[in-house]
UniProtKB/TrEMBL annotation:
Span of the signal peptide: 1-27
Membrane topology category: Lipid-anchor
Gene name, Swiss-Prot/TrEMBL: rlpA
Cellular component annotations (GO), alphabetically ordered: plasma membrane
Major localization listed first in the record, in broad terms: membrane
Lineage: Bacteria, Pseudomonadati, Bacteroidota, Chitinophagia, Chitinophagales
Ranges of residues in domain RlpA-like protein double-psi beta-barrel: 30-119
GO molecular-function term, one example from the UniProt record: lytic endotransglycosylase activity
Keyword Cell wall biogenesis/degradation: yes
GO terms classed as biological process: cell wall organization; peptidoglycan metabolic process
HAMAP family, per database record: RlpA
Gene3D superfamilies, per the entry: RlpA-like domain (2.40.40.10)
Protein name: Probable endolytic peptidoglycan transglycosylase RlpA
Organism annotation: Chitinophaga silvisoli
């Protein structure tokens, strides 16, 4: 039997859950090719204003906000890398992300130069 007190508690709980779930981020997945930066970009300023370093876990994306954390999965071998978006690009057709050399090594794509990847990130409302 639901009493008036239980009814109020249930209403408050349902309202809290509705607010919580409506403010949650949505997970987004994007597929395409990844490449990595040439060594000539070491020490240059990125679009975000930070200095690019090949030994950091960073990447470039055309539209994601700077500071977005992205999980990159190499489709061919299943290896993953977590990077932070600090720059704009890539500007080659079919490519969705440009990675630092450290991230590319972690994904096992140094020898191929380009790899088919899936990128995952949370998009805030």
């Amino acid at each position: 039997m639901i009493t008036k007190k239980h009814s109020r508690t249930l209403l408050v709980l349902c309202s809290a859950m509705l607010i919580l779930f409506s403010s949650c981020s949505r997970k987004i997945t994007e597929s395409g090719k990844a490449s990595y930066y040439a060594d000539k970009f070491e020490g240059r300023k990125t679009a975000s204003g930070s200095i690019f370093h090949q030994n950091k876990m960073t990447a470039a994306h055309r539209t994601l906000p700077f500071g977005t954390k992205v999980k990159v999965v190499n489709i061919a071998n299943g290896r993953t890398a977590k990077v932070t978006i600090t720059d704009r690009g890539p500007f080659a057709e079919g490519r969705v992300i440009d990675l630092s050399k450290k991230a590319a090594k972690k994904l096992g794509m140094i020898s191929t130069g380009v790899a088919q990847v899936e990128i995952k990130y949370k998009k805030k409302k």
